[in-house]
Specification:
The chain has 131 residues and is mainly alpha-helical. The protein has one domain (3-125): Orthogonal Bundle (N-utilizing Substance Protein B Homolog, Chain A), CATH 1.10.940. Helices cover 71% and strands 0% of the residues. The protein has 7 helices and no strands. Helix 1 packs across helix 3, helix 3 packs across helix 5 and helix 6 runs antiparallel to helix 7 (111-125). The radius of gyration is 14 Å and the shape is globular. 31% of the residues are buried.
């Protein structure tokens, strides 16, 4: 499984968690994680651990669109992208490109541009994008 496909699994599981509260391991057992199990587990656990902070970032950046008004898929693409920007060593350009691709495949009509803009701002406001 490629990393893009692993991110699709993460997105799918985050989406399911919006509607059904289940333990992480139970949720993961329902998916074929292939050779990306560690990657998927780390992303999900990290997003859930930092969800309040990530959601606050989304809420502040989504001017006029509180986090609760965002489409569920778009919100979860942003959660994954912000987590990867702030808590992993994935190059920011890769994070943003992957999030935009997920938005094109699964998000709402305006999601690719919206997600690109928010992730770009988060990156530029972090110490990595400031230089």
């Amino acid at each position: 499984m490629r990393r893009h496909e692993a991110r699709e699994v993460v997105l799918r599981l985050l989406y399911r968690l919006e509607f059904k509260r289940v333990p992480l391991e139970e949720l993961l057992a329902e998916e074929d994680l292939d050779d990306q199990g560690d990657f998927i587990r780390e992303r999900l656990a990290g997003i859930l651990e930092h969800r309040a902070e990530i959601d606050g970032i989304i809420d502040r950046r989504a001017e006029g669109w509180g986090i609760d008004r965002l489409a569920t898929v778009d919100r979860n693409i942003l959660r994954l992208g912000i987590y990867e920007l702030l808590y992993t060593d994935v190059p920011p350009e890769v994070v943003i490109d992957e999030a935009v691709e997920l938005a094109k495949e699964y998000g709402t009509e305006n999601a690719p541009n919206f997600i690109n803009a928010i992730l770009d701002r988060v990156w530029k406001e972090s110490d990595g994008g400031a230089s």
